[in-house]
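Hi! If you just cloned this repository, the fastest way to understand the data is to look at a raw example. We've pasted two of them here, unedited. The first protein comes first, obviously.
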Amino acid sequence: QVQLVESGGGLVQPGGSLRLSCAASGSIFSDSNVGWYRQAPGKQREFVAAITSGGRTNYAGSTKGRFTISRDNAKNTVYLQMNSLKPEDTAVYYCFWGITWGQGTQVTVSL
């Protein structure tokens, strides 16, 4: 069983930056794909970014060029650096590690 703990969410002004972290513990498979989804109020959960164990990345079109995903396999942690944030980035951000989901962390982009 894998446990995930997310952190780094909060309130930021448009154009600002945040860095989300997701630390995994338990029965971790180091070759798992990991990444992030988000869900805004009244909307379906949508893909944000993912990274393979080998470091290959994939981004949603809306986040490409602004968000950067990375992972530290030694620390079993995945990161999401979010720059040039927009109000439409406001959502609860969920990390996944293989088939396990985190509890979510709120990101609010507003003046």
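Ok, and the second one:
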Amino acid sequence: QVQPVESGGGLVQPGSSLRLSCVASDVLHLYTVAWYRQVPGLGREWVATITSSGIKTYGDSAEGRFTVSRDNAKNTAYLQIDNLRPEDTATYYCNTGGRPAWNWGQGTQVTVSS
């Protein structure tokens, strides 16, 4: 069973940028990959999706400041977040698009605070 590894989060000030990474060794290149985020006590929110051929779609909360990308040769997907806001504070996860087919990873925590 596949379990991705997310990384790249941190504690940053408003207006900063981060690039999150999602690695699923040997298999990521085969899948549509989606990014999600979750705040404690709330459900997991879909953020963005990228197909294996690079077609991108974004949730309403991600339009304009989020950029999803991938490097199939490295079996890695990325989520670039610019102009971070306090409301972006969450744990960010990756999984397959549609019905998640992988195990959920540990996620990567993004905290935006001055």
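That's it. A detail worth noticing about the second one: The CA atoms of residues 4 and 24 lie 5 Å apart.
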